[in-house]
Amino acid sequence: MHHDLSELEARARLVRDGPNALPVSGRRGALRLLGEVASEPVFLLLLACGAIYMALGDRNEALMLLGFVCVVIAITFVQQRRTEHSLAALRELSSPQALVVRGGTPRKIASRELVCGDIVLLAEGDRVPADMQLVAAANLTVDESMLTGESVPVSKLAGSSSAADAAPHDSGQQVFSGTLVTQGTACGRVVATGEHSNLGRIGKSLAALGDESTPIQKETRQVVKRVAIVGLALAGMLALSAGLSSGDWLHGLLAGLTLAMAVLPEELPVVLTLFLGLGAWRLAREKVLTRSIPAVELLGATTVLCVDKTGTLTANRMAVRRLWSQTAAWAAEQDAGLPLPEAMHALLEFAVLASHRRAFDPMEAAIGACGQQLLANTEHLHHDWTLLDDYPLSPAMLAMSRVWQSPDRHELMIAAKGAPEAIIELCHLDAERHAAIAAQAAAMAGDGLRVLGVARAYSVAARLPDNQHDFAFVFLGLLALEDPLRPEVPQAIAECRAAGIRVVMITGDHPATAVAVARQAGLIADGGVMTGAELGRLSDGELSQRLAETHIFCRVQPEQKLRLVQAFRARGEVVAMTGDGVNDAPALKAAHIGVAMGARGTDVARQAAALVLLNDDFASLLTAVRYGRRVFANLRKAIVFVVAVHVPIVGLSMLPVMLGWPMLLLPVHILFLQLIIDPACSVVFEAEPLESDAMTLPPRPAQARLFDGAVLMRGLWQGSGLLLMLLAVYALARFFSGSDDMARALMFSVMVLSNLGLIFANRRWNRRAPLSGRSDANRSFIWISAATMLLLGGVLAVPAISRLFAFATPTPVMLLLGVGVAGVNLLWFESVKWLPGSGQRAAGRPLRA
After folding, report:
1. pLDDT at 447 over 70
2. Are 418 and 351 a contacting pair, CB within 8 Å?
3. Are 185 and 138 in contact (CB under 8 A)?
4. What's the rounded Cα separation, in Å, for the pair 174 and 157?
5. List 4, 118, 308, 617, catalytic entry
6. Known active-site residue 308
7. Which residues, other chains included, contact 220 with Cβ-Cβ below 8 Å and sequence gap of 6+?
8. In which band, very low, low, confident or very high, does the pLDDT at 269 lie, cut at 50, 70 and 90?
């Protein structure tokens, strides 16, 4: 006798053990996030400059800088607050309600309120709400594919009374949280809830794997750190030198802080964030949800794509494809639309009778649908027959039988279906017929089909036998089902191969089924097949050697999927992994890019993955790869601009102090450039389309750097030429006008116009690209150029603003000459494309003749 809990006992255990729910990760609080944003070095430098202006008595300049700082901090805070991700590892997969017996009365409660010791009642179609030890079961089968990867439901038996109260070890007497009851009824005692369940332990394994930064993030942090250290050292020396030479330590400190602002490459994290954020937004429009934004840039480097068969390559939807008997045959691909031959009616009729009318098992649902389609308007669908009893699947007999009573016949009809060898055994066939049927079943399995045998028997006995073996079964034929390939898969895999991405299949299915599906999908099926058993026998070194030639892995256990992903990573591959079940979650988390199927996938897979294909369209994965390659190529263009624009900013911050000139660039000038031009450039470069041949080139090397010699050299060449021109403009304007403020205004105007030229020249790195008349007009560049010109005009034309910028409005002739100089600078930027080592190689692509 198994005693249920009282409400008082249940409440006490709920307080002690916590709710039956899986933990989620928390997010950063608003105050913590605001503190992180406000502590960015560039903001601290601006605050320091504002304080110095206040000390110098320049109240307007100080307030303007401090106002800018507050605006930028507010914008950054809102953006990060909006994009802050809740990395909740898992959500509750169990059904919202559970039928529990408490105080002797069955009633429904929220599944999160279940506690250990509760007695729960289960029926067909129920999602198991917690790990339970069975205390009673009738014909119970459970779909555990979410945990094991096996699509065939598992038969469950109730344990003894003592076993139910002891710590359970036999999974055949247990049901697990998140699995689905496909047949029968049961009563079980809860033995584990929440994070202590099997599902919860998977959650812990995901948390243990942790998150890691992408190579670009690591490289960007290193570059920013090194440049910042050098810049701060130079700024300190400049401040010390200026203070000693002039005796004005406040102005010397202001010059040093201005140089620090000029050197500090704070745009790099901003550009990286904007590129990845906008890339994620564009992918969302393509029905690809990006849960981990840094994974976007890594997509372009993907070299190995590990795919799960069920639900990824296939539709996870069974369908009857063939019927076969020793006198007739029917194939869906050949006989679709034609009437089913009369000789096949009995085969399909008894296959339907051997299935549940209210089917939860996908195979039984497919058989029922086929019967409704092919036996409609015939006498072979028996809605008025009564089910008297059934004989469930068992480990000893992989076949099930159902006993029916017809309203107009005295004898009983028994329908059986199951594994072909089990049905052959029930029919007691001779060796010759046995061999013929087994050969046909093997041929169907070799085509990737799941094969079932069907038989019938009649009985007039008053009492049914204890064993289905005692019926005189007659063999009717074989029925083959298929989980059809997604229609978009062959083309998508062909595109992967053209792009240099290796595709491997990892599945729990039979080798023959896996090979057949692989061939249909266009995967390499001739390189050998590795089973999970063989995989388990290999050392890490032996496995690494076999990975180079093996493209199909079958009968693979969940933990082996994780090992395969880690083995590919150890070989230096950039691994993307697709999946849709709970059993896929650890491998999805361990891969560089985990990709979950959104519509049919489980919450666990979606939460563990970096990308989610919302419409389950496998081809959209190729779209994501395209965006990944586009992000990396365009990032390099933006970095060239950032390097090029910093060279004159640094030069104009240092040289005037060293030459005894007045300061040419003040903090407000640098702030104007950083807040208007630099973020704008990232939007323009991000909007540049992918090169037409990008998906026919191999992935970039895993060790490819964002900041390599070609990128830095191009930026330095462009920036050095611009610096020399700006110094010449200032010197000549000062000589002819006699005004430092007018010369500063003209130089700054040329600098802003030349920055727009830098953006234009670096949009495309093809040497043959014309300077004008491009058919691929970038609207972002047009709008940003217009806005920048409008703001520059306001700075020059409004006296109050001009005074804050220390400007005197140049004459129209000087402005016209400045436009001409900006045009000359554009010619220089374009000519840099012809310099050695500065061609297409800078885009991370091989040069072509």
Report:
1. yes
2. no
3. yes
4. 8
5. 308
6. yes
7. 268, 269, 272, 706
8. low
